[in-house]
Design brief:
Elements: H1 6-20, E1 24-25, H2 41-51, H3 57-70, H4 78-84, E2 103-107, E3 111-113, E4 116-118, E5 122-126, E6 129-136, H5 146-156, H6 162-167, E7 170-174, E8 190-193, H7 211-214, H8 222-231, H9 241-246, H10 252-261, H11 263-272, E9 274-279, E10 282-287, H12 290-304, E11 309-314, H13 320-337, E12 341-348, H14 351-363, E13 367-371, H15 374-382, E14 395-400, E15 420-426, H16 439-446, E16 451-456, H17 467-471, E17 474-478, H18 480-485, E18 491-497, H19 499-516, H20 521-525, H21 528-549, E19 555-559, H22 563-576, E20 584-587, H23 594-605, E21 611-614, E22 627-632, H24 638-645, E23 657-662, H25 667-685, H26 699-712, H27 721-729, H28 734-757, H29 768-804, E24 814-820, H30 823-838, H31 846-861, H32 869-899, H33 904-915, H34 923-943, H35 951-969, H36 976-997
Parallel strand pairs: 1-2, 6-7, 11-16, 11-17, 12-14, 12-15, 13-14, 15-16, 18-23, 19-21, 19-22, 20-21, 22-23
Antiparallel strand pairs: 2-5, 3-4, 5-6, 7-8, 9-10, 18-24
Length: 998
Amino acid sequence: MTKFNEDSRVKIPAILHLMRLGYSYISLKEAQWDTDTNIFPDVFVSALKNINRSASESEILRLKDEVSLLLENEDLGKAFYERLIDRSGIKLIDFDNFSRNTFNVVTELPCQNKDDEFRPDITILVNGMPLAFIEVKKPNNKEGVLAERNRIKARFQNTKFRKFVNITQLMIFSNNMEYDDGSPEPIEGAFYATTSYSEPVFNYFRDEEDLSRTVSLSPASNDLEDKVLRDNNLAVIKHSPEFITNKSPTTPTNRICSSIFEKNRFEFILRYALAYVAEDDGLQKDVMRYPQVFATKAIEKAIDGGTKKGIIWHTQGSGKTALAYFNVRHLTDYFARHSVVPKFYFIVDRLDLLIQAQREFQARGLNVRTINSRSDFAKDIKSNKAIHNDQGQPEITIVNIQKFQDDPDVGKAADYDLSVQRVFFLDEVHRSYNPKGSFLANLTLADPDAIKLGLTGTPLLGKEYDSKSIFGDYIHKYYYNASIADGYTLRLIREEISSNYKLVLQQTLDDVEVAVGSIDKKRIFADPRFVEPMLGYIIEDLQGSRVALGDQSIGAMVICDSSDQAKEMEEQFQSTFATGGLTSALILHDVGDKESRKNQVEDFKAGKIDILFVYNMLLTGFDAKRLKKLYLGRVIKQHNLLQALTRVNRTYKDMRYGFVVDFADIRKEFDATNKAYFDELQAELGDEMEKYSDLFKSREEIEQEIEDIKDQLFRFDLSNAEIFSQQISEIQDRKQVQLIKQTLDNAKSLYNLIRLLGHFDVLEQLDFKKIGMLYREVSNHLDLLNLKENVENSDTATNLLNSALEDVVFMFSKIGEEELVLADELKETLRKTREALASNYDQKDPKFVSLRDELERLFKKKKLSEVDQETMNANIGNLNKIHARIKELNRENEQLRAKYGNDKKYVRVHKRLIEHDGISESERRIHEALVGVKSKADLVVLENSQVIRNENYFEQTMMPSVIEEFKSKQKIKINPDVARFINGLVTREYLEEYKAGA
């Protein structure tokens, strides 16, 4: 029996794909390697001689020893990586001519230290150094990719594997399935990561380029394929349909191999996409997220095309500061290739943002200079120095324009050194860059040739002006819904406080007004009698949330109605709650000094402070992963509202949501802001709405049961277990999968019964040997569906358990919770629904007509562009239902199309016959008859292409074939009218196809 496991289904096809990408296979049976580092000495010496022509073998061997020493460091491989990309001295890799390096692939290379060992499925060697590995699992494996993540976490924490961790730059983990964007954990798909001593971060990779156009695959070599199969004792799978299917470049594993290990991509990633970051909990290693990869490529393309300004629209939490860092590295080399010296600036409009950006750049090892005044900026821009550090390392200058954007001209163009290519990254270009002010004018006049790259994560709002008109077109976009799907940001839940609490607040408000008369509301909101119940609610809610979420480390921020209210909050907290173990900090521009505020912010991030009381500070640009509760004491306007809300959307541990407790009722403002966001998307992306049962069974009973099984499984490919597995994986309905499993289980039981009764000739009527394989695939997928359901429900169950264990005092009531949905989710839902409808090729199907009519009714009933939260959530829900049904209909069509050699014509004919009252035979019999008709019709058309020009003649020619296949061969009872109906369906399909192609 053909082997059908992760080796035959995923590993070997991936190795062969890598070979087509230019990686030569090395058999470990014939190779020697240094077990201390897993470097292959012979390959290492030969490769380095090739790229360092003047280096001797002894020098290269000394370098190998040096590398071994570097790998002993407890630095996550930082010293080795710096040596790896160093272009001075003897080069480990030739980045100037990357194709001159030597690329190999091996399998099951042991990472061994005494008795401890693990063997990655596939290891990628560059110049004999194991710089990447791939771990694969078969589709629908139990626990999905999570199982491999947990294993690699345990291995990397083992100090005995330090050298192997330190030399590895990239890792791929795949179970050869498509991503499930709705899953809270990376269970299905192909993910990439870099190394970590604690827990690697799994990243999605959604390629934005057409791999069939951008990736060149060499022709498959039959001899090399045989070599790999023999070396892995898998020669038996060579001609199996499953193996042939899995060699396709379009499988999830092979796609991510193309995306990452295509040589130009691999060079880019090794050279620019890795960064060491000094975090509070130690040194971490980051790898570019895929949107950052494609944004960087888009920036280079734009500059190549002469663009001097443009916008990067990446949602909040997607790493825009990191993107600027990566581009300093990349653009430094880009301009060097053009003999240009670049000078980089990062422009912010607040001191706290300067401090944060400075910390992030320095944490990544970038040299940072800061400028806070107009005179210093003028002096710097006149300087002819691009680099101000003595080591000549890449550098960025952070400029805080808060105090001088409206100052007079900084100077005249003639005053400036124009030999330097200035690149300005302008942070948060949805605000502060008023074209009527002087800063932008100064920037443009100072150096007309400067490149200005605007960064924003929020809608580009404004009636008088908008960022796009000031900073140019979008260079790259990455929206909020994509960021959520990729696991980089969290969804937001708005919690509305209970009505009885509102009554308490209103009573307090009334009491104050009675006591002091009509006064400014801000004074009322800052009154101790108003603040006391509000603060009490906040403390109780935070404590309850920590219990419910099972995490005592989550922090909170209270956005107060005024600075006076914030001060009163802090004063009451210190007098009432500070003794209970909670801690707080007051962050206002006029309280304390810059250093003390900076320390308080760092303490909050480190978990030493529980609650921050703020007014205007920290609403934008403040990133603290543990901040998961935001208490809104006032309505914030336009883009600032979205900025504030997304303070709680950063990923943290296994949290799935950020929570916004709404004292101020932001719904109206949020809907208005979201409408503006939707309009911006509409203008940028086009209007989607316009595109729119026991041992005593007789032999006859057994044969009939086989026929029933064939009918039940008719739409599935039973001859190719890989395609069958893919078809099964697309079904998310557990009941449907359970029925298929039961059918296959019956077939297994029938197999044993047939053998027991000795009806061995009956065994030929069904491929029973493959039934067991198919049964395992269905069982695995059902297990995976169960796992996903458990993961999705685990938060609720855990929260209930945690709450039940605590005193009832923490069980506070709310009116309810609602998810804050940004307009790009509606936009995306519209797009995918439209595309799913457009991709259906049987638009006469009654099911399709019903779905289209339902969508039309939705349009007529309520405009889909209305984006208040209630309407938008309802529209998204309705669209998702339509999308799910059309997706299922398309899936059924694709299954049926595979039965007819991917011929859409016969899908439509088949379905019209099933719908016809005059035909009562099973689908399978109709299919067998139509396959015969198709064979003859295709032959007629191929032998005489003119026959199709004459409709009547073509119908007369085909009628005998229809009658023969249906009545004579398949014994299907049809009368003359039905025969004419069938013949008319078939011939019209050919005529329509001919007209469409004529």
